[in-house]
Amino acid sequence: MNVSTHLNGMDAAKAFFKEERLLMPVIPETLQPDIKELGAGVFGTEWAKGKPLYDIYPFVQETMRDPHAQFLVFGQAGHGVNSWAMHYYLVHGPIALFIQLPYGGVYMSREASVGAITGAWGLLKDLLKAVDEMEVNSEERLYIVESMLSGCRWAWGERGDVVPEGAWKTQQPTFYNALRSIVLGRVA
After folding, report:
1. Distance CA 58, CA 70 (A)
2. Which residues span the domain enclosing 91?
3. pLDDT (tens digit, 9 = 90+) per residue, 104-118?
4. Is residue 127 part of a domain?
5. Does the residue 24 lie in any domain?
6. What pTM value is reported for the model?
7. How many distinct structural domains can be found in the chain?
8. What band does 58 get if pLDDT is binned at 50, 70 and 90?
Protein backbone atom coordinates (compact mmCIF):
# COMPACT_ATOMS: atom_id res chain seq x y z
CA MET A 1 0.00 0.00 0.00
CA ASN A 2 1.25 3.51 -0.81
CA VAL A 3 0.81 5.48 2.39
CA SER A 4 0.34 8.79 0.60
CA THR A 5 1.52 10.37 -2.59
CA HIS A 6 1.54 13.86 -1.07
CA LEU A 7 3.72 13.17 1.99
CA ASN A 8 7.50 13.54 1.95
CA GLY A 9 9.46 10.32 2.49
CA MET A 10 9.97 10.66 6.25
CA ASP A 11 6.32 11.57 6.84
CA ALA A 12 5.19 8.65 4.67
CA ALA A 13 7.47 6.29 6.63
CA LYS A 14 6.13 7.57 9.95
CA ALA A 15 2.56 7.09 8.72
CA PHE A 16 3.35 3.53 7.57
CA PHE A 17 4.91 2.52 10.90
CA LYS A 18 2.07 4.16 12.82
CA GLU A 19 -0.50 2.27 10.74
CA GLU A 20 1.41 -0.98 11.37
CA ARG A 21 1.57 -0.10 15.09
CA LEU A 22 5.36 -0.43 15.07
CA LEU A 23 8.10 1.78 16.41
CA MET A 24 9.88 3.76 13.73
CA PRO A 25 13.55 2.72 13.43
CA VAL A 26 16.34 5.23 14.01
CA ILE A 27 17.05 7.29 10.89
CA PRO A 28 20.36 9.21 10.93
CA GLU A 29 19.62 12.95 10.72
CA THR A 30 21.95 13.45 7.77
CA LEU A 31 19.95 10.93 5.69
CA GLN A 32 16.44 12.10 6.65
CA PRO A 33 16.11 14.72 3.86
CA ASP A 34 16.97 12.04 1.27
CA ILE A 35 14.34 9.51 2.39
CA LYS A 36 11.72 8.75 -0.26
CA GLU A 37 8.88 6.29 -0.52
CA LEU A 38 10.41 3.68 -2.84
CA GLY A 39 7.44 1.34 -3.00
CA ALA A 40 4.57 0.00 -0.94
CA GLY A 41 5.88 -0.03 2.64
CA VAL A 42 9.50 0.58 1.54
CA PHE A 43 11.43 3.79 2.21
CA GLY A 44 14.99 4.91 1.68
CA THR A 45 17.53 6.82 -0.31
CA GLU A 46 17.54 6.82 -4.10
CA TRP A 47 20.42 4.29 -4.23
CA ALA A 48 18.11 1.43 -3.22
CA LYS A 49 15.25 2.22 -5.62
CA GLY A 50 14.14 -0.84 -7.56
CA LYS A 51 16.30 -3.30 -5.60
CA PRO A 52 14.39 -6.20 -4.00
CA LEU A 53 14.86 -6.04 -0.22
CA TYR A 54 14.06 -9.63 0.55
CA ASP A 55 17.31 -10.94 -0.99
CA ILE A 56 19.76 -9.54 1.59
CA TYR A 57 23.13 -10.81 0.34
CA PRO A 58 23.30 -8.83 -2.94
CA PHE A 59 23.07 -5.69 -0.75
CA VAL A 60 25.90 -6.97 1.46
CA GLN A 61 28.10 -7.95 -1.51
CA GLU A 62 27.56 -4.68 -3.37
CA THR A 63 28.33 -2.70 -0.23
CA MET A 64 31.60 -4.57 0.34
CA ARG A 65 32.73 -3.84 -3.25
CA ASP A 66 31.83 -0.13 -3.14
CA PRO A 67 34.03 1.83 -0.69
CA HIS A 68 31.84 4.92 -1.16
CA ALA A 69 28.47 3.22 -0.60
CA GLN A 70 26.15 5.20 1.63
CA PHE A 71 22.43 4.50 1.80
CA LEU A 72 19.46 3.57 3.91
CA VAL A 73 16.49 1.44 2.93
CA PHE A 74 13.88 0.13 5.35
CA GLY A 75 10.38 -1.29 5.39
CA GLN A 76 8.38 -4.43 4.76
CA ALA A 77 8.98 -6.65 1.75
CA GLY A 78 8.56 -10.28 0.78
CA HIS A 79 6.60 -12.67 -1.37
CA GLY A 80 3.93 -15.35 -1.11
CA VAL A 81 1.81 -15.76 1.99
CA ASN A 82 4.49 -16.24 4.65
CA SER A 83 7.84 -15.03 3.27
CA TRP A 84 7.67 -11.47 4.57
CA ALA A 85 10.08 -9.46 6.70
CA MET A 86 10.84 -6.04 8.12
CA HIS A 87 14.14 -4.76 6.74
CA TYR A 88 16.61 -2.07 7.75
CA TYR A 89 19.76 -1.73 5.66
CA LEU A 90 22.05 1.15 6.61
CA VAL A 91 25.47 1.90 5.16
CA HIS A 92 26.69 5.11 6.73
CA GLY A 93 30.27 6.02 7.60
CA PRO A 94 32.00 3.10 9.32
CA ILE A 95 28.94 0.84 9.57
CA ALA A 96 27.15 -1.44 7.15
CA LEU A 97 24.14 -2.89 8.91
CA PHE A 98 21.60 -5.29 7.43
CA ILE A 99 18.63 -6.29 9.61
CA GLN A 100 15.93 -8.64 8.35
CA LEU A 101 13.27 -9.89 10.76
CA PRO A 102 10.15 -11.98 10.00
CA TYR A 103 7.05 -9.80 9.83
CA GLY A 104 3.70 -9.99 8.08
CA GLY A 105 3.40 -13.61 7.02
CA VAL A 106 0.05 -15.32 7.58
CA TYR A 107 1.59 -18.02 9.79
CA MET A 108 3.70 -15.62 11.87
CA SER A 109 2.78 -14.45 15.34
CA ARG A 110 2.29 -10.69 15.10
CA GLU A 111 3.05 -10.36 18.80
CA ALA A 112 6.37 -12.22 18.50
CA SER A 113 7.33 -10.29 15.35
CA VAL A 114 6.55 -6.92 16.93
CA GLY A 115 8.56 -7.89 20.04
CA ALA A 116 11.58 -8.87 17.93
CA ILE A 117 11.37 -5.69 15.86
CA THR A 118 10.98 -3.47 18.96
CA GLY A 119 14.01 -5.15 20.54
CA ALA A 120 16.07 -4.78 17.36
CA TRP A 121 15.23 -1.08 17.04
CA GLY A 122 16.34 -0.56 20.67
CA LEU A 123 19.66 -2.31 20.04
CA LEU A 124 20.00 -0.39 16.78
CA LYS A 125 19.82 2.88 18.69
CA ASP A 126 22.58 1.72 21.08
CA LEU A 127 24.72 0.41 18.21
CA LEU A 128 24.51 3.64 16.20
CA LYS A 129 25.37 5.68 19.30
CA ALA A 130 28.44 3.48 19.93
CA VAL A 131 29.50 3.79 16.28
CA ASP A 132 29.18 7.59 16.46
CA GLU A 133 31.48 7.63 19.51
CA MET A 134 34.14 5.22 18.25
CA GLU A 135 37.35 6.15 16.52
CA VAL A 136 37.90 4.07 13.41
CA ASN A 137 40.24 4.18 10.46
CA SER A 138 38.35 5.81 7.58
CA GLU A 139 39.12 2.78 5.41
CA GLU A 140 37.44 0.32 7.82
CA ARG A 141 33.82 -0.65 8.05
CA LEU A 142 31.92 -2.83 10.52
CA TYR A 143 29.59 -5.18 8.63
CA ILE A 144 26.66 -6.66 10.56
CA VAL A 145 24.07 -9.03 9.10
CA GLU A 146 21.20 -9.79 11.49
CA SER A 147 18.74 -11.96 9.57
CA MET A 148 16.41 -14.52 11.06
CA LEU A 149 15.91 -15.75 7.47
CA SER A 150 19.43 -15.78 6.01
CA GLY A 151 21.72 -16.07 9.04
CA CYS A 152 23.58 -13.72 11.36
CA ARG A 153 27.22 -12.68 11.24
CA TRP A 154 29.54 -9.70 11.58
CA ALA A 155 33.06 -8.68 10.59
CA TRP A 156 35.42 -5.76 10.33
CA GLY A 157 36.64 -5.15 6.79
CA GLU A 158 38.40 -2.70 4.55
CA ARG A 159 36.03 -0.59 2.44
CA GLY A 160 36.04 -1.82 -1.14
CA ASP A 161 37.27 -5.34 -0.24
CA VAL A 162 35.03 -8.36 0.06
CA VAL A 163 35.34 -9.80 3.57
CA PRO A 164 36.62 -13.40 3.27
CA GLU A 165 34.24 -16.10 4.53
CA GLY A 166 36.63 -17.09 7.33
CA ALA A 167 36.75 -13.54 8.74
CA TRP A 168 33.04 -13.42 9.59
CA LYS A 169 32.10 -14.04 13.23
CA THR A 170 28.87 -15.83 14.00
CA GLN A 171 28.61 -15.72 17.82
CA GLN A 172 25.04 -15.05 18.84
CA PRO A 173 23.56 -12.61 19.58
CA THR A 174 25.17 -10.77 16.67
CA PHE A 175 24.24 -7.24 17.79
CA TYR A 176 25.63 -7.84 21.28
CA ASN A 177 28.94 -9.21 20.04
CA ALA A 178 29.37 -6.45 17.45
CA LEU A 179 28.70 -3.85 20.16
CA ARG A 180 31.16 -5.65 22.44
CA SER A 181 33.75 -5.45 19.64
CA ILE A 182 33.26 -1.68 19.45
CA VAL A 183 33.47 -1.17 23.23
CA LEU A 184 36.41 -3.52 23.85
CA GLY A 185 38.22 -2.87 20.60
CA ARG A 186 38.59 -5.02 17.53
CA VAL A 187 40.11 -7.93 19.49
CA ALA A 188 36.73 -8.91 20.95
Report:
1. 15
2. 50-184
3. 777 778 888 888 899
4. yes
5. no
6. 0.88
7. 1
8. very high
